[in-house]
Amino acid sequence: MDSHPPRYDPEAFRSPPTLPSARTEPPPTPGDVLLVNPFYPKDPCGSFGKHVLTPSLALTSIAGATPPGYRVRIWDENLLQGTPPSVPFPQIVGITVHLTFASRAYELAAWYRARGAKVVLGGLHVTACPDEAAAHADVVVTGDGIPVWPRVLADLTAGVARRRYDGSFVSPRYEDHPPPRRDLLPRSGYLTTSSLVATRGCRNRCDFCYLSLDGLRMPAQTRRVEQVVEEIRREAQPYSVFIDNNLGVNRDYLRSLCRALAPLDHIWSAAVTLDITDDPSLVRDMALAGCTGVFIGFESLSASNLADAHKGGPDPAEFPWRVRLLQDHGIQVNGSFVLGFDHDGPEVFDELVDWIEAVRLECATLQILTPYPGTPLFERLDAEGRILHRRWTLYDTAHAVFRPRRMTPEALEAGYARCYERLFSWQSIWRRRPRSASAVPAYLAMTTLYKRSNRLWAQLIRHRLVATVWRPVVELSRQRHVRWRRRLAAMERPGLVAAEPVR
Ligand code: B12
Ligand code: SF4
Predict the structure, then answer these.
(1) Which structural domain range is residue 64 located in?
(2) CB of 209 closer than 6 A to ligand 2?
(3) Which residues pair with 199 in a beta bridge?
C-alpha cells in the first residue's frame, strides 16, 4: 500500500487555454451579454474535484439582476471546455475577478475589447484594487454588483457609461435581491449547481479575511427562509452547499431555517464558526434538517496565533469536544487551517496533522497564510517589509508570498505540501474513518474519489461526467441520512447522540 499519492499536474489544470490571435469573430450582437469566470491554476497537492463541487454565485447572481431584453450566457473556464465563446460575439462581457485569476481576467478583457465588446470587471479583487482593474476595463464595479448592474447595462447600451460604479452591500435589502439564474449553468459540470446563500456578513473581523477589507461595509443580513427553501425546491438536486461566510451568524435565524428545511428530506453542508456548538440543541436541529457536513475555520491550534489574527471563538483546548459533538450528530467536519502565522515554527506541520488524525477530522483544508491586498494583515506585513512580491497569481494559499517569522518561505511551502501528502495517504484516511462501522464504506468511497483520484477528475471534468458519477453516490448518502435522522428525531433529549451517525 503506497502512502503518498503521486502528484499529478497536467497542463490543462496549470494554464488557461490560448486565446486565438486571428480576428475572425463577427461584430458584437446588440443585447448579447457574456459572463465569465476565468481560469485559475489548480494546486496539485489538493483535490481537483473541489473545483467542480459547486459554482460560485457571482455570475448567476449578476445574471439574475439582468433586466429583460438582454440575452445572457455564463462561461466557467474551469470546466475545461476551451476558450470562452465568441459566436455570437457579445456586446457586453462581465468578468468576475479574484486576485488569483486577475491576470487571466485582464487577458480575457483585452481580447474581447480588441474585438469590439465592452468589458465590465467586478468581484472581490476589483473591490480591493479598483484602480488596478480599471486599467483593463471599460467599467469597473466595486462592492455588490446586483444593485448597480441594470444601470451599468443601460448606460453602456446608451453609450454614456461611467468608468466606475460602487454597489452597496447595505441597500437594497438583501432579501429583495432577485434569485440567481442557475438555469444558465451546465448541470452536468458540477457535483451540485445548488449553491445557496442565506446570510451575509460575519461577527468576526479576522485580519487575514477579505471581510476586513479597508472600507468594506457588509452588515449581517438574512434572506427570508421561504426564499431559500423555494430555491432548493426549484433546483431539485439531492444536495446543496450554503456558501455563506458563516451560516450560524444569527442562531435564531439558523434554527428557523433548519425547521423549514427538515421536511424536504434534503442534505446540505455549510460554513459555520465552531461556537455553533455552544448550543447542542441547534446542532441537533441542523442534523434533523439534513446537515451532513460543516466547513469550520479553526485556522490554528495556537491561541497566540488566533489572538494575533483577532479570530474570536472557543479556545483550542475546547476544539476536540466540540468537533465530537458535531460528528456524533452525523455532521462531518471539514477543518480549515492556516499555516505560517508568526508563532508557527517548523514543528507546526506534524503537530497539526497528528491533531487532525487524533480528532478524526474526516476532511481538512490547509492554506498558507496569504495577505490579501487591502486587509489589515497585508498592511502590517507590508509595513514590516515582509511581502515578497505582488504576483497575485501566486496569492493562491499554496505559495508563501511573505517572509514568515519562524521559518523560511521555502520551508513553509514544503511543510504545507508534506501535510497534504500525509493527509491524503491511505494510512491517514483510515485513521480518520468514522467511529460507526456502518458509515465506513461510504466514507472510504467518497474519500477515495475526492482525495486519490485526480487523474479520474481530469477525465470527468473534461467529458462533463462530474454529475453522472457523483450524483448517485450523493443520492445514496441522502437516503441513508433520511433514515438516520428519523431515528434521531425519535430520540427525545436534545444533544443525545444517535447510535449510528451517517456520513
Ligand atoms: C464558492 C467558492 C469557491 C468555489 C468556486 C470558486 C470559483 N471562483 O469558481 C470553489 C470551491 C471552487 C473555491 C475554490 C477556491 N476558493 Co473560494 N470561495 C467560494 C465562496 C465560498 C463563495 C463565492 C461566492 O459565490 N460568493 C457569493 C457571490 C455572490 O459573491 P461575490 O463573488 O463577491 O460576488 C459579488 C460581488 O463581488 C460582485 N461581483 C462579482 N463578480 C462580478 C462580476 C461583475 C461583472 C459585476 C458587475 C459584479 C461582480 O457582485 C456579486 C454580487 O454581490 C467564497 C466565500 C464567500 N462566502 O464569498 C470563497 C472565496 C471566494 N474563495 C477563496 C479562496 C482563497 C479559494 C481558493 C484559492 C481556496 C484554495 N486554497 O483552494 C480556491 C481557488 C479558487 C480561486 N482561485 O478563486 C477566498 C478568496 C479570497 C480572495 N481575496 O480572493 C474566498 C473569499 C474565501 C475566503 N474567505 O477566504 N471557492
Ligand atoms: S470568521 Fe471566517 S468569514 Fe468571519 S472574518 Fe474570520 S475568516 Fe472571515
Answers:
(1) 11-167
(2) yes
(3) 222
Element holding 222 (H helix, E strand): strand 221-222
Q: Residue 480 in 3-state DSSP? A: helix
Residues 289 and 413 in one domain: yes
Same domain flag for 139 and 198? no
CB atoms within 10 A of CB 181: 18
The Cα–Cα gap between 379 and 223 comes to: 34
Q: Is the CB of 367 under 6 A from ligand 2?
A: no
Digit-by-digit pLDDT tens for the chain (503 residues) are: 344 545 899 999 999 999 999 888 999 999 999 999 999 999 998 899 999 999 999 999 999 999 999 999 999 999 999 999 999 999 999 999 999 999 999 999 999 999 999 999 999 999 999 999 999 999 999 999 999 999 999 999 999 999 999 999 987 788 889 999 999 999 999 999 999 999 998 878 888 888 888 778 888 899 999 999 999 999 999 999 999 999 999 999 999 999 999 999 999 999 999 999 999 999 999 999 999 999 999 999 999 999 999 988 999 999 999 999 999 999 999 999 999 999 999 999 999 999 999 999 999 999 999 999 999 999 999 999 999 999 999 999 999 999 999 999 999 999 999 999 999 999 999 999 999 888 888 889 889 988 899 999 999 999 999 999 988 889 989 999 999 999 999 986 555 554 444 44
Q: Say which residue the cell 446586483 belongs to.
A: 146
**Cα-based torsion angle of the residue sequence 165, 168, 174, 179 in order, rounded to the nearest 10 degrees:** 10
Residues near ligand 1 (Cβ within 6 A): 37, 40, 50-51, 53, 56-58, 61-62, 78, 94, 96, 98-101, 120, 122-124, 141, 144-146, 149, 197, 209-210, 243, 245, 367, 372, 396-397
Q: Residue 76: nearest ligand to its CA?
A: 1
* Ligand located closest to 269 CA: 1
Atom of ligand 1 nearest to the CA of 124: 37
Q: Which of 124, 199, 208, 273 to mutate to test the pocket of ligand 2 (most atoms within 8 A of CB)?
A: 273
Question: Quick check: is 387 in a domain?
Answer: yes
Residues 209 and 306 in one domain: yes
Domain-located, residue 182: no
Contacts of 39 (CB under 8 A, 6+ apart): 15, 16, 17, 77, 78, 101, 104
Mutation test of ligand 2: which of 211, 216, 305 has the most ligand atoms closer than 8 Å to its C-beta?
211
**Which of ligand 1's atoms lies nearest the C-alpha of 51?**
12
Whole-angstrom Cα distance, residue 368 to residue 379? 17
Residue having the nearest C-alpha atom to atom 7 of ligand 2: 209
110 & 31 share domain: yes
SS (H, E, C) 303-321: HHHHHHCCCCCCCHHHHHH
Measured from the CB, is residue 246 less than 6 Å from ligand 2?
Answer: yes
